[in-house]
Design a protein that fits this description.
Layout (H helix, E strand, L loop, with lengths): L1 E4 L4 H10 L6 E4 L16 H16 L2 E11 L20 H11 L9 E11 L5 E12 L15 E3 L4 E2 L5 H7 L1 H22 L1
Parallel strand pairs: 1-2, 1-3
Antiparallel strand pairs: 3-4, 4-5, 5-6, 6-7
């Protein structure tokens, strides 16, 4: 069975395919399609944005489709930047500027109040209209300065107390084991297996 992960990020595709190792499920990406019009993310939550992308992908391709949306929620900022994580400092997207703005917004906030989490919402949508939502989170704290060169986005500021380092100080395989997206993907695996079993019987 073929499923579509509505992304152009080959890393995400590999991550999901690795979790489905041994299954008769092939993960395609938007790069495997001839033409794809970008879906505008207008939802007020990660789940709404993910559902929008997954539904449209399923309708356009006739394949069981997955889409995710994720970002950073900071408690002292009432959940911001949230769905605006990628464009926190405005257009065009710029990780450095986003991190600078986050540091400015948290200036003077004491360490114990700088808590937050990365959250990922993943929606699986079938052409029949069936939909499933899985979510993953990873809790941490926002530092006063960047640490580490790995990763992207807010990783250099996101400190993991259990590891004693930031997300940007973990290598890719370490990050993929604990990340919010990895958790959401892991929860999606049994759902995709169920679709594959039904597909075999059809």
């Amino acid at each position: 069975m073929k499923v579509l992960l509505a992304t152009q990020n080959r890393g995400k595709v590999k991550e999901l395919q690795d979790l489905l190792s041994g299954e008769e499920i092939e993960v395609l990406s938007l790069e495997d399609l001839d033409h794809w019009e970008e879906v505008e993310e207008t939802g007020s939550t990660f789940a709404e944005n993910a559902a929008m992308k997954a539904r449209i992908a399923a309708q356009r391709t006739g394949l069981v489709s997955l889409a995710d949306d994720s970002g950073l929620e900071v408690d002292a900022l009432q959940g911001a930047p949230g769905v605006y994580s990628a464009r926190y400092a405005g257009e065009p997207k710029d990780d450095d500027k986003n991190n600078d703005r986050l540091l400015q917004e948290l200036e003077g906030v004491p360490e114990e109040q700088r808590t937050g989490r990365f959250r990922c919402a993943l929606v699986i949508a079938a052409p029949t209209g069936e939909e499933y939502l899985t979510e993953g989170t990873v809790e941490g704290r926002i530092l006063n300065e960047r640490r580490g060169k790995e990763g992207f986005g807010y990783d250099p500021l996101f400190y993991l107390p259990d590891f004693g380092r930031t997300m940007a100080q973990l290598n890719l395989s370490q990050k993929n084991k604990i990340s919010h997206r990895a958790e959401a993907f892991r929860q999606a695996v049994p759902i995709l297996k169920e679709f594959a079993q039904r597909n075999e019987k059809a």
